Queue: 3 jobs
Job 1
Amino acid sequence: MRSAIAILARNPDITYSELAKAIGIGRATLYRHFPKRDNLIREISLYSLRQVDVEVTPIFAKPLTAMEMLTETLAKLIPMGEQLHFLSREFAVMQDEEIARIYAAQLEGLRQLVRAAKAEGGIAADMPDAWVVRLIDTIIYTAWEAIEAGDVARNDAVELVIRTLNTGLRAL
């Protein structure tokens, strides 16, 4: 799954034959497991969404402030930027009921975290929740992309994202 995600995230138009070869399996094997490209895309999408839950759910069980939870969540999600980017490019898959339900629940969890951070004063109360959620979603991918390009060190990415969310781009 991870290999397929990495390849499809960079080349969404790759043929099934090229994809099988790039993954290191035979085309027949790929077809046996996923008879249609849509089957593969659906399974990759479910895998990616489930991985988000696996990584993020334990954070909410810790006795942390909302901003600490947000920081830890970002630390888990930024390395998953490729998977999240893949999902954002596969608009048709969001029509799948199961995928849409899981994604909606994840967004609602993020909205609740944003509201809690607002209540603590970590995020400006006058910022619309939807704006902050979209900003966080976008900045996760941007951080991952910068890491992959070698523009930002992996260890610095979370701090840069939190700093950007907290202070924007103004000089300190």
Job 2
Amino acid sequence: MQQHKLLLWTGRIGGILVTAFFLSFFIGEGLPDIMNGMGKELLHFLPFTLLTIAGFIIAWFQPLWGGRLLMAGAVLMAVYFLSNGDTRMALVYGLPSLLIGLCFLGAVNKELI
């Protein structure tokens, strides 16, 4: 298999896993808290996660722009957690999306590999 196709499918499969994690977290933990009025911290974090999910959806069809959006969402998420003093959460949430974005960018052009 060619390396750019391997990177593309690695990004797609990894993106599915990360998106499923975020969505299951919001459905299981976030929505009940928001409905009970206790999800104020989650509402601050939600735009960064939605940016990452939108980046993955776009990357499925346009890897260059979606990969850039994924990486922007990952950096914003990491900056958000780092500004709150939570380095571990910055790595847990930011690093997978950043790596997936890099996979998409590497798959765009064979010469980037």
Job 3
Amino acid sequence: MEEDRRGTVSTLAFVLMPDHLHWLVQLGDNSEIQKVVGRVKSLIARRLDGAIWQPGFYDHALRKDEDIATVARYIVANPLRAGLVSRLGDYPHWDAIWM
């Protein structure tokens, strides 16, 4: 992702669902989640030639007792829970480096 190249985040896992995105990131130094998400939404909207995003977003900072690998697995399993596929490997719009 562009934000990874910029160094503002390190993407740990993501899944692009039909109507939303789940994205597990580690913020870079001095990165602000609002600005990062705003740039990503803007870039994708420009590439798709139109506004596709709802205003705002929902974020959740992981607590020290939360296991990153468990959260990453939960994120990428969203297509299974939504009934879009019967095997995660059949869903093309996800990736994770933290599994």
